[in-house]
Amino acid sequence: MKLTIVGCAGSYPGPDSSASCYLLEADHEGRTWRIVIDLGNGALGQLQRYCDPRDVDAIAISHLHPDHCIDMASFAVLAKYHPDGSYRKIPVYAPRGGEDYLGWAGGPGGEDPAESSEFHVWEDEPVMEVGPFRVTAALVDHPVTAFGMRIEVEGHVIGYSGDTGPTDVLLDIARDADLFLCEASFVESKENPPHLHLTGAEAGQVSATAAVKRLLITHVPAWTDAAEVEADVKSAWSGAYDMVRCGDVFTL
Ligand SMILES: [Zn+2]
Ligand SMILES: [Zn+2]
Question: How far is the CA of 184 from the centre of ligand 1 (A)?
């Protein structure tokens, strides 16, 4: 399995990265299967560096903040009007309301993502199975309905926090994971609002308790000092970690 960091800027696109988007690829039954986790602002452009969007088999959206989903509105345009013909309809898993919200985001009279995608609601179907991928969504702690994900592929596990404040649900998502892709939007030196985001130290604490094998810190906003986030991580975690950047690839 290959994880490519397509976009990792927190909260809004930064000068060096689009907002959240992660591409997972795995070979299975004679072909490569691809799923995309989140498709935030600018990510549809960056995704084309790593694959033809036509070859994506499914999309999993953690929550309906624009930095995690808004490029679905542009995906609908690409999928319908590509000169080589429309894309096949692919499954898209999102929180309830995703279909309506992303239809609205297409603008008055704009493209409806439901025409290019088969929408599923995490609250009704918390498990997405596509090719070799099994993605289990779990409700985390954020101002809107938001899910973290535990992604399993042929014995390998990637945990993804999505956006969340501290919650024990992260332990279920990350337990013994080969890779734990965890947000760290806040720094310990500030007063942070509750139920919103993690600091690097909180990401490190979860990783230690859950015994993850490698921590991947993501979703650091451009307005935040990444070096301070990293220092916070190191204060609570002595294991392997990366501060991910656009284009980083991790293979399991
Ligand atoms: Zn976010
Ligand atoms: Zn959010």
Answer: 10
pLDDT in tens, 169-227: 999 999 999 999 999 999 999 999 999 999 999 999 999 999 999 999 999 999 999 99
238 CA from centroid of ligand 1 (Å)? 26
Centre of ligand 1 to C-alpha 8, Å, is 9
Please give the distance, rounded to the nearest whole angstrom, from the Cα atom of residue 220 to the centre of ligand 2. Answer: 12
CATH fold for domain 2-251? Metallo-beta-lactamase; Chain A (3.60.15)
Maximum distance among all Cα pairs of the chain, rounded to whole angstroms? 52
Query: Distance, CA 55 to ligand 1 centroid (Å)?
Result: 25
Name the helix (H) or strand (E) containing 127: strand 127-130
Identify the DSSP state of 190: S
Return all residues near 63 (Cβ < 8 A) that are at least 6 apart. 69, 95, 142, 144, 145, 146, 147, 162, 163
**Cα 201 to ligand 1 centroid, rounded to whole Å:** 18
DSSP secondary structure, 145-177, as one string: -BEEEEEEETTEEEEE--S-SS-THHHHHHTT-
- Is the pLDDT at 115 greater than 90? The verdict is no
Domain layout of the chain by residue ranges: 2-251
